[in-house]
Structures are given as structure tokens and as C-alpha cells.
Amino acid sequence: MKAQEIKKGIHFVGAVDWNCRNFHGYSLSPKGTTYNAFLVQGGEKTALIDTVKADFTDTLACNIAHVTELEKIDYIVANHIEPDHSGALPRMVEMIKPEKIFVSPMGERAVKTYYKTEGWPLEVVPSGSEISLGGKTLQFVETRMLHWPDNMLTYIPEDKIAFTSDAFGQNWATSERFADQVCRATLEQLLSDYYANIVLPYSSKVISVLDELEKMNLDIDMLCPDHGLIYRGDDVRFAFDSYRKFANQEPTRKAVIVFDTMWHSTEKMAKAIASGLESEEVSVRLMSVKQNHHSDVMSEVMDAAAVIVGSPTHNNGILPGMAGMLTYMKGLRPQNKIGAVFGSFGWSGECVKILTDWLESMKMELPVEPVKVKNRPTHETYGQCFDLGQKIGQAIKKRTG
Fold it and tell me: Which of 50, 82, 235, 260 is catalytic?
């Protein structure tokens, strides 16, 4: 691939990672991802905004070379120091020898812990700072915790373009560069998946940042995240509206049943609970933690009104797959959820108490008593499971209208 001009004097020079399947080691990315970087040429100065993962340093250098010589770049802007966006930074500093490297206040702290920055011309740019490239102005806005403390946005008012680092990204490797060139349904799903597994814990901060950007009244007609497709025209509003919807975590008429099983007893209970939910015309996702990656589970949990969890008792605890799933879920801090618990046991029956404690620690409302079965469910206990699903379905309808 080569550089692509997205506005006059502004080029995409990033890299497409076609083979990435596990993003950051914890979230699946079945369609790959991109590491977006941008070259901005003003009348007097040239700036590189963000770099790429270290493995793609040569790709970045080659793409830049399609536009200009590396030595003619004056500034580097590091909107975010996470290694998928700064891994190439040390080599770029060595080759470019920039006059200045602009970072946020928290970015300065982060970059010094990742790289040997002695002699680097670092310059801290708090919110409201700006520099001129000659005909193009770089304005800096801190966007802390979207999704790291160092994140910032760079805005060019003359071109109505904003570079947002991780915010509004999707994991999607494509030859296309713009959101209006690809399948809309796939874009919406991947944007939601990214939010559910990367940004969800910071939803309250997302709302405050979106409110602050609205107050600033920035005129934006192109939004450039550091992963995936670029938004232009009406899609800019689509991106902002999507993030506000995700951040509000408004529940839909959906329940996710997450379970692990040993000899299929808990699995059979899960299916009976699903039947109870279906009887109330509630959409159900039945997800075994053995068959579904935790990031796929969270993609479904994000907009669900209810999360119902089940596990057998194992060594006076729960199965490790369920423990891992709940650890991951709690870290992402889903809000506004109804919860319920079920499980089976052979000798001791600690599973339902442990699962209840997990959901209570996530501040879920638990309106129904758990169902616990010794060894195998009977006709009677299948009925109890059905009733649990039915009652949760009724609670969901009250909440979602």
C-alpha cells in the first residue's frame, strides 16, 4: 500500500494489520486492525500525527516516503503513547530528528517510562495549546481516559479535521479508508465491539468529553481515529451519537445467559432459563464460556438488560472459565443490568453464593432467587429454571418499556 491523501496536504500514512486476530492479547479482532498515522503538510512546517506498532515501522517510513523525505518532517505529535501507536516512535525520532515532539501532560510521563527519551525535544501541550504549520493550525485537546490517561485529540480548524487517537476506532483491516465505503452493518458492529471491550469502563468520562467537545463547538467534517475507518460528512455525527448511546448504556430487551458446565447439568438449566425468557418475548443469547471468547460475550452484554450466569461448583468454587469471564466483565464495569444466578453441584453447593457475590460486586439488581440443582436437574427443577427466566423477562420488560 502507499500513502493516501484524505484532504489537501493531509495523508494517511499508517499500516494495515491484516493478520491481527487478538487485539492487545485480550479482545478478538477477527477482521484485523489498522494503526493509523497521518502526515500534515502546512505552508511552513510538516507534522507526523501518531506512529504505528513497532512491527510496521518500515511500512510507515515507506508510506511517508511516497509524500516527502523523512528529514523534511519538523514535528511529531504523539496523541497516545500505547505501543500500538508509539512503537515506531524511537526509530522515527532517530530518522526524522524532529524539532519538537508534542505530547499531553500525561503523555510526557508515559513516554519516558516506555522509551529512552534523553535528548528528545519533548514539548508538553495541555488542552487549549496550539501551533501553526503555516496555513494549518494544530489545536490540542486532552481526552483523558479515552482510554488511557495520556490520550489527546488534535484538531485542524482550517481543514475541519480531528485526529482522535483511540476514540471512535474499530478493529477492521481494509483497503478502504472511509466509513462510507464499507458495509454499514459491519461497521456498526465493529464500532460497538471495540467500545464494549476497550472503552466501556470509561463511559462516564466519555459523556463528559463529548459534552466538552460540544461546548467547544468544533466544526468537524472528518474524524480520524487510530484504528479502522475514517468518518467524513454525516458519519462524523454518526460516530459521536454512537459513542453517546454506548456511554449511556441504555438496556435493550435482551438477556445474555453466560455459563460453564462439566457434565451438562448447568447447560441444561441454561436452556430451560432461555425458554422462560423467550416466553416473555425477550431476545436471548446463550453463551458457553468454553465456546465463546470473553470479548464476544462482552459485545453482547453491553446493550443487554440482563446478565444471567451459571456454573457448577468446583473445588468449593466455580469453574475457572467462569471465574475468568467474571473477572473480565467486572473490569469493564457494565452498568444498568439485572442479574440472576443458577448452578449445579455434587458434594457442596457454593457456586450460587459465589456467583451472586460477583454480580452484587458489579452492582447488578438481583430480583429473583437463584436456582441450584444437585447432580442433575429434574422435571421440577427445569420448571424452576423456566420460572427464573420468565421472571427475569418480566423485569426486563418493566425496565425497557
Answer: 82
